[in-house]
């Protein structure tokens, strides 16, 4: 039976039920409280719960057995009502009658139920058309209303019919137009609970602002008059508080009704989301302010309300859960029908499916959708629940008659005893932890045999993981599902038993998630469904609910073990392996790596298709990975990976190796599981070939063999001086219990590996695991100390210590506060006293914090311990000789470079490459203008902390694949040698590009320390750079920057429309040197300002960004139509800001629909680097998208950490290195948490060895060996005087090396390697494959040259033709005191093959026009090319048109032959190029490309010329050209002049009578179309001047026209010598719009009905008028 949450008879703990009871509404009849809740699509519909005290609730009935009989509600015909059904019921007791109302999204109707006896019925049912959202009943005297709505409040009156039912009484009235209070974005106010209290009508609602938490809103008014009619409705937020459950604060308790108790005290029943357990009710006290507003008091623990005198408390359950969750022996006579007694539900029970079958379940049960009562029974076999399959389905989601009860927290277990003797083939029966992402343990029957299996679905409801089937011969089996919500672990696990006592775990855990696809909490679900044949059945003897999980499970552990089952495929089957994707697996004895069997993999359609198996990995644990692979067809070599992936398709390569065709090859590697980002509950491993988006059947999708796959965790934990610190020996020795502590090694106590220790029997706080370290530790020595601890009962948090003591005294070495239910790591360093400590009696133990009067619950709880370590720190001399391993190990992608520092990264994507711009940590510009790589040091030469004050450079690297990074040099920005001489420093760059005046321009913004933002410009992403304005673009004088503490850290965005914005600023303000909580929580120190079109000026004033807890590091991205502003939080703000948990030193983000804001806080993206790599510090980032994947680039002290580990640095000194990891933008626009890793990102493209490769392109290298020796590692420097020009490897020394990743030599391969070098003492370069000690395929000799040697090329044939994809290592060796040599570039020469065609200027499917130069690019060297023939052909028949031996201007020699063609002389249509590249060795490479020539018709005016003045009749001539001409027409304005069908090319002439149009400017338009659908139109303007000028001597009569002063005038009567212009005279000024409508002029006469345009508005004359301006309402004109 579930345990009570009542802490004593008189108090209770919220939530009152740690289970899914959402949308509660409560009423009180003077004796009992009754409550309704949302159960959506579950049946029976709308549960009725009863309580005497508002805390202990029992289900006493339902409003109806089902809501309605529809396909959706019955899971029929492929339809369902998931996430719909009924929402948010309302309950009221009024005048001796109980009323329940509820709306249904599924039926689109609203239901009202009424009864005199709420527990016995009968119910009267009213069905009203229309769905009233989250409605509430409101009784107002004799009137009854429903109040409902979302975002607004509607009121609709009800009328009573003669039969007691209700109907609508008129339409709805909107009483509140906008029910939201204090929010503009988020969940609209909804969830109405309406009351008449005192003088007011109150409506209680919930709203959830995007930037806040759920909160309770109340609207009130003294009348029901709508706002629109003057109603005085007031809205107020009355409650906004997070409730803490399981040690974590939620997202706010809200949405619920209020009720007045028997003693007059008011209460509110609210709910809060508690994750997958569901939405749990919270009981709060309510008082009323003097001005009539409710005031809430929600406490974690509170007094239980008193019961009414007339109530019988014995009717309440003994605890707060068993009234809604109950064990059941399935005795049909034990429960009254309850809900089968509705007075008017005949339509519901008329069908056989719905008729009462005489079986009465306990009221705690609900069916998933309407049951089919023909196929379940409690009477067919008394004392058993019989479930018979009645339809065929494919999964539990579609299975009818699935019977459920709620799971509950913090832990709950549901078990069944099941008789499976009458199952049929294809039947599946068992128990589930049920929601969309479900898991279950079931008996499945196939081919007459039964087996036990656990299956787990993803968030889409698709099964993604299945356990190894366990054969079952017994007819009776016990199955169990355990739900663990402790500390929001949110894990479900499954077990089976043959005796109900000893249980075996099966399958992996389900990471339970609350999924809106179902919109309910997890339930225990008993099910039986058929996939093949109906009619089988199972009998369930009992269902037992308990709050104890893990009962009866074996707790032994065996130490390290292989996580992969049947890895050698020797079991006689492939199980539990399955084929990933389309892969087909089959055992074979024909070819194996060991044993007798391997597995063959065929049928692959994607590179990831291969053998797959689920594995139970643990975060932070390092695993050893191994697999043997062989393939026999395809390329000479191929990269294979062992990869781990989760249900979200997040994948990581665990191990990788290049396999040689025909040879068994072992893939091995070490892989550390990230602390976050990988859904461990759905993790699976598989073997694959290296990814490509367009796999080739031969080269990528070959069949292959696999054998001996293993994934093993840590074996003997390294506890330093502590033996068996990981307890992986399977025993406690040499640990003992301190005091009375009892120790037991169990699997359940393992934090990692398979074992840990449980500690029980404690009587003192010091009682815990103890181990002697006598004479193992040294006085005065420093030790790193760690231990993992967890406890599950007692206070919410507890301090634990790792303590050392001798025979007389004790010292705490490390301490931490542990949260109940969660593993926590105690860590720290401790120096043993040099004197006064007896190391001969030293012992170490784990304890709770000391108290002299320990409490059994709060201080002496049981706990578990694992991974206890005490490791001596090596002493570090002042200037040690370094021996650091590279920070970037082979196979990893982080840090991006480990031979040089770079901080505050900004990534710009341009032309297929990513450019990283970084603050030049560890460098400065010397007096001669040279960039020097060196630390800051003190007077004794010791490295000191980075002050950032000497930084005047920005480092740039670039890559096309994110692993091989080319050093682009250092930009000298600040100081006398920098581009911006006015600046003293250059920090935190941001770069972008924009097309200005048709040319691509690049812009680099930087911070001058904290004093302003500068900008540099260039025509290239790598420079050279110049300062276009000679001053800051943003400074303290920029409008809107008041309040910015630090004017630094720019970020730039160029929007889709070309407008640009600059984001900057940071710092925490203070008052008199002290920052208040408001100043740390809301510094308001960052800004955004619009940039001018030139990108080097600003427009308007800067706008404030109110970023919670901001410190620095603005970032900006646009994703879709949303702007994402990201930033680093400060280190002193509150843990919770505006209801959001905001960690310190973390990258957080906000969103807006406007680049200038306002922005709304959303969450965090990346924790502080210290949480991933140990060394913390500031956090600086940028996000970017590259090749359809989002990435985050950031800095960490990873290179410094490597030097510390190598012994040449005492600590990290703040010199930072740039890294990149993936980041995921979810479908809903949220950004998932990224994880900082050394592994980094996957390579996204291969490297071409046949192009020149800069030697400053490096994937991996030997790194910096010694922090104090500038020559102890790889160095890169400019080849010439420009620091940002071409870079070379310089000062190369013996033993150093560099490497390139993923170099694709292709099937033909390379035969030779060359390098451009400048020798000093000389030496050799060994070219190795796949490892620094891999096979040597070539050795370049570099003779001694001295300091003045010139650059030269050395070359050597390779020892074999290198094909396929390899990592290439260059190892350097030589003797002498000087450096060996410098290297500028590498290049591989193809094997003796035909010339390689590496590019063609036109691609398949392109369309070309005009004069075209087709260019072919060849690889290799020109001397190896004899000639290249380029031929143009037409149509499918490939009819020759011309070639580059005939066409003028074409070439056929060299590496870039051309064919020049004027396509306008050719007919439109399909064409192709045939290219034959002929080598000097006689071999030929042929390629073809097809494209379309499509030249539209060509038109040009011959006469008249544009702008000409014309009169009378005149020729209009147009020159017409083109192919397949279809039609030609000539127009003036919109009037046609001439038309020709299938005109001939040449001049088209038409004589135009210009007197047919009014004088003035007119447009001539010529249009031609062709048979391909092309259309060309040209226009020109001409001035028509046909009207004679006014002559004072001439006589004019009515209707004559003249031109005068640029206008046309019409004579109204006989006139002579009367100048036009007098508004009362004989002349009317005539003007029209382009469509001929009259334009109003003062002198023009208009009659009734005439239309005229004035100032863009059309008017109609009502009577005769002249010189009366339109617009006067009393005048003759009205708007037309």
UniProtKB/TrEMBL annotation:
Gene Ontology process terms (BP): carbohydrate metabolic process
Composition bias type Low complexity, residue spans: 303-320
Domain CBM6 stretches: 1251-1389
Stretches the record annotates as Disordered: 303-338
Gene3D superfamilies according to UniProt: 2.60.120.200, Carbohydrate-binding module superfamily 5/12, Galactose-binding domain-like, Glycosyl hydrolase domain, family 43, Immunoglobulins
Highest taxon listed in the record's lineage: Bacteria
Enzyme Commission number, as recorded: 3.2.1.37
Keyword Signal tagged: yes
GO MF terms, alphabetically ordered: carbohydrate binding; xylan 1,4-beta-xylosidase activity
A GO term from the CC aspect: extracellular region
InterPro entries listed in its UniProt record: CBM5/12, CBM6, CBM_sf_5/12, Cellulose-bd_IV, CenC_carb-bd, ConA-like_dom_sf, Galactose-bd-like_sf, GH43_C2
Keywords: Glycosidase, Hydrolase, Signal
Annotated family: Belongs to the glycosyl hydrolase 43 family.
PANTHER family in the cross-refs: BETA-XYLOSIDASE, HYDROLASE, PUTATIVE (AFU_ORTHOLOGUE AFUA_2G00930)-RELATED
UniProt-recorded name of the protein: Xylan 1,4-beta-xylosidase
Organism: Luteimicrobium xylanilyticum
């Amino acid at each position: 039976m579930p345990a009570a949450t009542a802490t004593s008879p008189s108090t209770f703990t919220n939530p009152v039920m740690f289970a899914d009871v959402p949308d509660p509404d409560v009423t009180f009849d003077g004796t009992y409280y009754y409550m309704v809740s949302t159960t959506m699509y579950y049946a029976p519909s709308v549960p009725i719960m009863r309580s005497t005290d508002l805390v202990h609730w029992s289900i006493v009935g339902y409003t109806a057995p089902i809501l309605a009989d529809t396909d959706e509600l019955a899971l029929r015909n492929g339809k369902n009502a998931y996430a719909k059904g009924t929402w948010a019921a309302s309950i009221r007791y009024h005048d001796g009658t109980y009323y329940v109302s509820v709306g249904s999204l599924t039926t689109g109707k609203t239901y009202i139920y009424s009864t005199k006896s709420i527990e016995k019925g009968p119910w009267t049912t009213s069905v009203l058309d229309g769905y009233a959202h989250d409605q509430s009943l409101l009784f107002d005297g004799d009137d009854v209303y429903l109040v409902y709505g979302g975002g607004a409040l509607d009121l609709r009156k009800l009328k009573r019919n003669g039969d007691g039912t209700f109907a609508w009484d008129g339409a709805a009235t909107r009483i509140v137009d906008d029910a939201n209070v204090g929010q503009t974005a988020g969940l609209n106010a909804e969830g109405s609970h309406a009351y008449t209290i005192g003088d007011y009508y109150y409506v209680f609602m919930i709203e959830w602002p995007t930037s806040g938490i759920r909160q309770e809103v109340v609207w009130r008014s003294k009348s029901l008059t709508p706002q629109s009619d003057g109603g005085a409705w007031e809205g107020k937020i009355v409650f906004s508080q997070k409730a803490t459950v399981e040690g974590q604060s939620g997202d706010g308790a809200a949405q619920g009704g209020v009720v007045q108790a028997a003693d007059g005290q008011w209460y509110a029943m609210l709910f809060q989301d508690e994750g997958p357990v569901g939405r749990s009710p919270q009981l709060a006290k309510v008082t009323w302010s003097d001005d009539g507003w409710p005031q809430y008091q929600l406490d974690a623990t509170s007094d239980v309300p008193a019961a009414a005198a007339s109530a019988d408390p014995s009717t309440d359950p003994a605890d707060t859960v068993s009234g809604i969750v109950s064990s059941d022996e399935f005795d049909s006579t034990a429960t009254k029908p309850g809900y089968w007694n509705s007075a008017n539900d005949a339509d519901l029970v008329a069908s056989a499916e719905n008729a009462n079958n005489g079986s009465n379940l306990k009221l705690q049960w609900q069916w998933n959708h309407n049951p089919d009562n023909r196929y379940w029974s409690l009477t067919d076999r008394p004392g058993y629940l019989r479930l018979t399959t009645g339809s065929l389905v494919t999964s539990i989601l579609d299975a009818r008659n699935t019977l459920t009860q709620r799971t509950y927290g913090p832990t709950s277990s549901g078990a069944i005893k099941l008789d499976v003797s009458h199952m049929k083939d294809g039947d599946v029966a068992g128990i589930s932890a049920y929601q969309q992402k479900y898991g279950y343990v079931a008996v499945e029957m196939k081919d007459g045999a039964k087996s036990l299996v656990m299956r787990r679905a993803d968030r889409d409801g698709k099964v993604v993981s299945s356990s190894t089937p366990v054969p079952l011969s017994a007819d009776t089996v016990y199955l169990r599902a355990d739900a663990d919500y402790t500390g929001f672990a949110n894990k479900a696990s499954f077990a089976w038993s043959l005796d109900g006592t000893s249980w075996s775990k099966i399958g992996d855990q389900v990471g339970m998630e609350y999924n809106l696809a179902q919109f309910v909490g997890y339930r225990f679900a008993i099910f039986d469904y058929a996939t093949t044949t109906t009619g089988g059945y199972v009998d369930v003897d009992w269902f037992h609910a308990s709050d104890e999980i893990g009962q009866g499970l074996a707790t032994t552990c065996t130490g390290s073990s292989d996580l992969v089952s049947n890895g050698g495929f020797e079991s006689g089957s492939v199980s539990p392996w399955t084929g990933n994707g389309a892969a087909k697996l089959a055992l074979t004895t024909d070819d194996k790596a060991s044993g007798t069997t391997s597995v063959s993999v065929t049928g692959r359609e994607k590179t990831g298709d291969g053998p797959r198996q689920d594995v139970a990995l643990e975060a932070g644990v390092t695993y050893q990975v191994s697999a043997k692979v062989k393939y026999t067809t395809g390329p000479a070599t191929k990269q294979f990976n062992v990869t781990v992936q989760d249900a979200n398709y997040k994948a990581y390569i665990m191990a990788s190796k290049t396999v040689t065709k025909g040879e068994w090859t072992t893939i091995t590697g070490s892989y550390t599981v990230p602390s976050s980002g990988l859904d461990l509950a759905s993790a699976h491993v598989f073997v694959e070939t290296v990814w490509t988006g367009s796999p080739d059947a031969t080269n990528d999708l070959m069949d292959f063999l696999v054998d001996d796959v293993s994934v093993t965790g840590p074996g003997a934990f390294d506890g330093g001086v502590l033996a068996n610190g990981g307890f992986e020996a399977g025993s406690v020795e040499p640990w003992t219990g301190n005091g009375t502590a009892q120790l037991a090694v169990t699997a359940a106590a393992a934090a990692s590996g398979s074992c840990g220790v449980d500690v029980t029997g404690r009587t003192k706080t010091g009682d815990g695991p103890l181990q002697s370290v006598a004479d193992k530790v040294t006085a005065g020595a420093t030790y790193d100390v760690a231990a993992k601890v967890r406890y599950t009962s007692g206070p919410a948090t507890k301090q634990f210590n790792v303590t050392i003591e001798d025979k007389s005294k004790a010292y705490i070495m490390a301490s931490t506060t542990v949260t109940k239910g969660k593993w926590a790591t105690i860590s720290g360093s401790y120096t043993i006293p040099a004197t006064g400590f007896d190391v001969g009696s030293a012992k170490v133990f784990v304890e709770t914090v000391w108290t002299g009067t320990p409490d059994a619950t709060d201080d002496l709880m049981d706990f578990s311990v694992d991974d206890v370590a005490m490791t001596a720190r090596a002493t570090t001399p002042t200037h040690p000789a370094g021996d650091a391993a590279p920070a970037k190990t082979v196979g990893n992608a982080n840090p991006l470079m480990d031979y040089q520092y770079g901080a505050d990264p900004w990534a710009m994507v341009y032309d297929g490459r990513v450019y990283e711009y970084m603050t030049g940590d560890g460098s400065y510009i010397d007096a001669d203008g040279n960039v020097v790589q060196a630390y800051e040091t003190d007077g004794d030469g010791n490295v000191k902390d980075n002050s950032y004050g000497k930084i005047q450079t920005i480092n740039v690297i670039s890559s096309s694949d994110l692993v091989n990074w080319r050093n682009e040099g250092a930009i000298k920005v600040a100081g006398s040698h920098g581009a911006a001489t006015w600046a003293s420093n250059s920090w935190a760059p941001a770069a972008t590009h924009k097309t200005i005046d048709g040319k691509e321009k690049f812009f680099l913004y930087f911070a001058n320390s904290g004093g302003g933002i500068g900008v540099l410009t260039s025509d290239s992403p790598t420079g050279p750079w110049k300062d276009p304005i000679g001053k800051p673009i943003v400074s303290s004088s920029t409008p809107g920057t008041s309040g910015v503490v630090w004017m630094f850290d720019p970020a730039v965005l160029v929007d889709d429309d070309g407008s640009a914005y600059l984001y900057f600023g940071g710092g925490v303000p203070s008052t008199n040197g002290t920052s208040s909580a408001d100043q740390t929580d809301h510094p308001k120190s960052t800004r955004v300002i619009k940039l001018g079109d030139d990108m080097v000026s600003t427009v308007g004033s800067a706008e404030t960004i109110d970023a919670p807890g901001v410190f620095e590091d603005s970032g900006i991205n646009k994703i879709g139509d949303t702007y994402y502003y990201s930033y680093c939080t400060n280190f002193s703000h509150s843990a919770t800001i505006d209801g959001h948990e905001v960690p310190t030193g973390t990258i957080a983000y906000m969103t807006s629909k406007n680049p200038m804001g306002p922005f709304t806080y959303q969450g965090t993206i990346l924790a502080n680097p210290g949480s991933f790599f140990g060394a913390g510090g500031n956090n600086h980032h940028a996000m970017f998208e590259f090749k359809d994947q989002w990435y985050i680039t950031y800095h960490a002290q990873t290179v410094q950490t490597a030097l510390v580990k190598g012994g040449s640095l005492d600590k990290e000194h703040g010199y930072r290195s740039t890294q990149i990891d993936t980041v995921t933008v979810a479908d809903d626009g949220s950004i998932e948490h990224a994880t900082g890793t050394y592994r980094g990102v996957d390579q996204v493209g291969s490297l071409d060895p046949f192009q020149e490769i800069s030697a400053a392109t490096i994937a991996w290298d030997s790194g910096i060996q010694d922090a104090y020796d500038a020559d102890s590692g790889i160095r890169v420097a400019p080849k010439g005087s420009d620091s940002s020009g071409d870079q070379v490897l310089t000062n190369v020394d013996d033993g150093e090396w560099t490497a390139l990743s993923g170099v694709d030599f292709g099937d033909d391969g390379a035969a030779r390697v060359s390098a451009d070098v400048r020798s000093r003492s000389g030496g050799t370069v060994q070219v190795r494959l796949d490892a620094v000690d891999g096979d040597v395929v070539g050795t370049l000799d570099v003779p001694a040259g001295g300091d003045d040697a010139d650059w030269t090329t050395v070359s050597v044939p390779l020892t074999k033709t290198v094909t396929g994809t390899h990592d290439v290592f260059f190892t350097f060796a030589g003797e002498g005191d000087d450096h060996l040599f410098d290297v500028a570039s590498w290049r591989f020469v193809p094997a003796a093959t035909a010339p390689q065609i590496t590019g063609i200027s036109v691609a398949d499917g392109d369309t070309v026009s005009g004069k075209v130069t087709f260019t072919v690019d060849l690889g290799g060297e020109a001397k190896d090319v004899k000639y290249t023939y380029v031929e143009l052909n037409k149509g499918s028949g490939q009819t020759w048109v011309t070639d580059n031996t005939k066409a003028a201007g074409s070439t056929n020699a060299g590496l870039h032959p051309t064919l020049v063609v004027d396509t306008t002389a050719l007919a439109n249509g399909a064409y192709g190029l045939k290219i034959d590249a002929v080598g000097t060795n006689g071999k030929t490479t042929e390629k073809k490309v097809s494209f379309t020539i499509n030249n539209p018709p060509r038109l040009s005016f011959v006469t008249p010329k544009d702008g000409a003045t014309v009169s009378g009749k005149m020729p209009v001539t147009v020159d017409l050209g083109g192919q397949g001409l279809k039609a030609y027409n000539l127009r003036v304005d919109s009037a046609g002049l001439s038309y020709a069908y299938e005109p001939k090319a040449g001049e088209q002439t038409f004589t135009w009578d210009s007197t047919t149009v009014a004088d003035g400017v007119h447009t001539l338009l010529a249009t031609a179309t062709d048979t391909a659908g092309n259309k060309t139109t040209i226009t020109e303007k001409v001035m028509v001047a046909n009207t004679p000028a006014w002559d004072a001597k001439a006589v004019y009569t009515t209707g004559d026209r003249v031109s005068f002063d640029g206008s046309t005038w019409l004579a109204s009567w006989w006139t002579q010598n009367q100048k036009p212009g007098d508004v009362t005279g004989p002349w009317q000024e005539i003007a029209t719009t382009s469509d001929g409508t009259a334009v109003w002029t003062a002198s023009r006469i208009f009659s009734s009905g005439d239309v005229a345009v004035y100032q863009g508005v059309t008017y109609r004359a009502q009577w005769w008028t002249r010189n009366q301006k339109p617009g006067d309402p009393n005048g003759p004109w009205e708007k037309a």
